[in-house]
Amino acid sequence: MNEFEKNVQSKRNDAVDSGVGFVVSFGFFATIFIIATVVKLIAT
């Protein structure tokens, strides 16, 4: 067992962190898509 396995910085579940990352990135791209759709509707 190496020193990194003994001294972990975070004991949180990795699935929670990956879920939060997915939701944040999905929300970012969804926001860009919504803004682009609104601009396209206003421009026509």
Mean pLDDT score, rounded?
A: 91
Distance between the terminal alpha carbons, to the nearest Å? Answer: 64 Å
Strand content: under 5%
What's the total count of β strands? 0
Keywords: Membrane, Transmembrane, Transmembrane helix
Protein name: YqzM family protein
Transmembrane segments: 20-43
Pfam family, one: YqzM
Give an account of the 3D structure.
The protein is 77% helix and 0% strand. The chain has 44 residues and is mainly alpha-helical. The longest helix has 30 residues, at 14-43. The chain is rod-shaped. The mean pLDDT is 91.
SSE order and pairing:
Elements: H1 3-6, H2 14-43
Concise overview:
Keywords: Membrane, Transmembrane, Transmembrane helix. The chain is an all-alpha fold and 44 residues long.
Annotation keywords:
membrane; 2 helices; rod-shaped; 44 residues; YqzM; transmembrane; single chain; mainly alpha
